[in-house]
Amino acid sequence: MIPLVGRGFRVQGSPLVSMPQSSGEQQLALPPAPQQGAPAPRRSPARLVAVVVGVVFGLLSASHRLPVVAGGGTFALFLVGFLLALGVGNALFAAVARPAGLAVVWAAFGGGRWAGSALVRGRLVSVRWLPLIPFVACLVIVDRPGLRRRLWCWTAVAVVGELAAGGVLAAVGSPPVAALGWGVVAMTALASFANPLTPGSRAWLLLRMPFRPEALTELVHEPALADVAAALSAGRVRAARAALDAAVRPDSPRHLWARAAVASAEGRHAEAADLAHTMYQESGLEQVRTVALSLYARALADGAAAGVWTREQILPGFTATLAGLRATRPAVVRYTDLGAIEAMLLRDDPVRAARLARFAAAMAPDALARAHALRTLAAALTWTGDSAPAGKALARATALSPR
């Protein structure tokens, strides 16, 4: 992705897009910018769970039955157990993904900045510099027979198993081992019960889905669409197109997402913007609408860079879309290259854009997001006259996601 900037340019030696725009796209009117309402109020059940957990741990500490405050490095071991539980929980869910009605889209060892990546059975596996969280996996829900039963049963098995392991350590271990166990119990409880109103979360699967499963419709991928998600995450755009063409349920909500995401990756920006707008209007889930806003903003910026629209045409919609993202999920702007694009589009500040794009590339969750950020970095560096670093950034982006 090469964003439009105030003075207009190409990255040396590279076209702005790899696919020509159809003649109809040049005349396609932009759909109106999605209007994002006020941020939703904080959920009282989540606050209640947090209060209960705090009271329980406070009482245990006061009664000296919680070894976390016993000294001798036990608090550090509590933190180790807390972080270890994140990795163990992710690994458990990845291990039972298929029988549970889930699919692994990408996986990462460690956290923080990107260190390297490889493809394993068509899935992206990245390595990060900080080993604080041993393992992270991105999972999507896949349509299988008896899906609700599968999801509930295997989620319960994973959560109970993790709680039992932590409970055994806390009950029978020495003070340091008990502190480790309490860390596992605390993290597992928070991750599994603290956000039951967030569709797709562990708490939602356990506590709300059995009684209010309506949101599941918007989250379920047919198997081909799970392959689309995995291929895009790995930067394999042609494989994503092939998987999308193999999908058999074009009326499903996730099919709309897949069409928008693949169109954006292939350089059909007007189509991507229109599909993202439709996706936003038709969805009632905040996380789905957030994805739609991100796709819409990127389609506008990429389309302006490709000459589908002028900078003046897309600025109102781009500005409104980023405002909507900041109102609900500000991390989407902070941890992607959308902030860098904004710095060039609105502020004519390529130096700030380069700094933000470097950070986005380092923190990118997958290969496609990293390639986007690196192409934005190349554009910013070209604007500042740093042609050699710009060429290197563009080459790295092409290696991650060839077009």
Task: Describe it.
By secondary structure, the chain is mainly alpha-helical. Helices cover 62% and strands 10% of the residues. It has helices at 23-27, 44-62, 74-95, 97-100, 147-172, 175-193, 202-208, 216-219, 223-233, 237-245, 253-266, 269-282, 286-305, 311-328, 330-334, 338-345, 350-363, 367-384, 387-400; strands spanning 102-120, 123-142, 220-221. Strand 1 (102-120) and strand 2 (123-142) form a beta hairpin. The longest helix has 26 residues, at 147-172.
List its salient traits.
10% strand; transmembrane helix; transmembrane; 403 residues; three-stranded mixed β-sheet; disordered N terminus; Serine Threonine Protein Phosphatase 5, Tetratricopeptide repeat; membrane; mainly alpha; 3 strands
Compact description:
With 403 residues, the protein is mainly α.
Topology:
Blueprint: H1 23-27, H2 44-62, H3 74-95, H4 97-100, E1 102-120, E2 123-142, H5 147-172, H6 175-193, H7 202-208, H8 216-219, E3 220-221, H9 223-233, H10 237-245, H11 253-266, H12 269-282, H13 286-305, H14 311-328, H15 330-334, H16 338-345, H17 350-363, H18 367-384, H19 387-400
Helix pairs in contact: 2-6, 3-5, 3-6, 5-6, 9-10, 9-11, 10-11, 11-12, 11-13, 12-13, 13-14, 16-17, 17-18, 18-19
